[in-house]
């Protein structure tokens, strides 16, 4: 998704915020300030939205748009690398089976002049096993940590230069949405709670912020998300 410039975002958001009908549904009564507008005006909420504050919010929204953009590419490259890793895993299992077979047959060759040949074979298998591990580490380093499969190998050292800009711990489709909802809610709650601005007005502000970069989310979505998050936290605490 394309990201609007900060100037466009700034102008769009302040235009929405300063409208007397900010946060009202389409069927609201004309020529009457909305509940959100009256609350922000009464409690001094407009003072929060300085250029510096909106600049920090814009950085979060910009990162969110990047996460949404890169998510399908991360998934695609992970599937490609994981196919290679699955083949390497099968090859490793085959080598390990050879090593076990060699160990089992050793007692049947006692007294035969085969020790030197066995040692060469054992060394060759160990070298091949090391080669497979190197390839596993390489292909695993190409896979984002969010979708790595530990069974397919490990990464000894993370690459210094990240191959993508996806930083979330999961590649679930809604993960970027949940991330941005939480970030915006935490920041706005910190600023608005001392002013005793209601949650619903906060959610309307969050909706306007996202809409100003081209993402339409109804305020009720944030309310439902927060309820689900609280339910999840409570279930973990009880268990």
Describe this protein's structure.
By secondary structure, this protein is mostly helical. Helix 3 (51-106) runs antiparallel to helix 4 (115-141) and helix 3 packs across helix 5. The protein has two domains: 6-67 and 172-238, no CATH class; 75-152. It has seven helices and no strands. The mean pLDDT is 86.
Question: What order do the helices and strands come in, and which of them pair?
Answer:
Blueprint: H1 6-17, H2 35-42, H3 51-106, H4 115-141, H5 175-192, H6 199-211, H7 219-238
Summed up:
With about 240 residues, this protein is mainly α. It is about 65% helix and about 0% strand.
Strand content: under 5%
- Rounded to the nearest angstrom, the radius of gyration is 28 Å
> How would you sum up the global shape?
rod-shaped
Tell me how many strands there are: 0
Low-confidence stretches: none
Secondary-structure element order, N to C = HHHHHHH
Number of helical regions: 7
End-to-end C-alpha gap: 40 Å
Mean pLDDT: 86
- Summarize the main sheet: none
Which percent range fits the helix content?
A: 55-70%
Structural class: mainly alpha
How many domains make up the 3D coordinates? 2
């Amino acid at each position: 998704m394309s990201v609007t410039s900060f100037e466009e975002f700034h102008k769009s958001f302040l235009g929405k915020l300063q409208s007397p009908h900010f946060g009202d549904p389409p069927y609201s009564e004309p020529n009457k300030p909305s509940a959100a507008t009256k609350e922000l005006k009464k409690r001094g909420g407009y003072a929060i939205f300085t250029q510096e504050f909106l600049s920090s919010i814009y950085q979060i929204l910009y990162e969110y748009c990047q996460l949404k953009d890169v998510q399908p590419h991360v998934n695609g490259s992970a599937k490609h690398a994981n196919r290679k890793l699955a083949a390497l895993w099968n090859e490793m299992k085959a080598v390990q089976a050879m090593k076990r077979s060699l160990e089992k047959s050793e007692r049947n060759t006692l007294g035969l002049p085969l020790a030197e040949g066995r040692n060469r074979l054992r060394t060759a298998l160990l070298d091949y096993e090391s080669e497979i591990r190197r390839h596993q580490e390489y292909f695993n380093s190409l896979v984002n940590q969010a979708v790595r499969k530990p069974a397919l190998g490990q990464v000894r050292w993370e690459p210094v230069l990240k191959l993508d800009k996806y930083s979330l711990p999961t590649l679930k489709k809604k993960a970027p949405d949940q991330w941005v909802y939480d970030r915006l809610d935490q920041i706005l709650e910190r600023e608005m709670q001392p002013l005793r601005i209601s949650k619903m007005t906060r959610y309307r502000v969050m909706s306007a912020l996202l809409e100003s970069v081209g993402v339409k989310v109804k305020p009720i979505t944030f309310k439902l998300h927060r309820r689900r998050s609280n339910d999840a936290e409570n279930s973990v605490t009880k268990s």
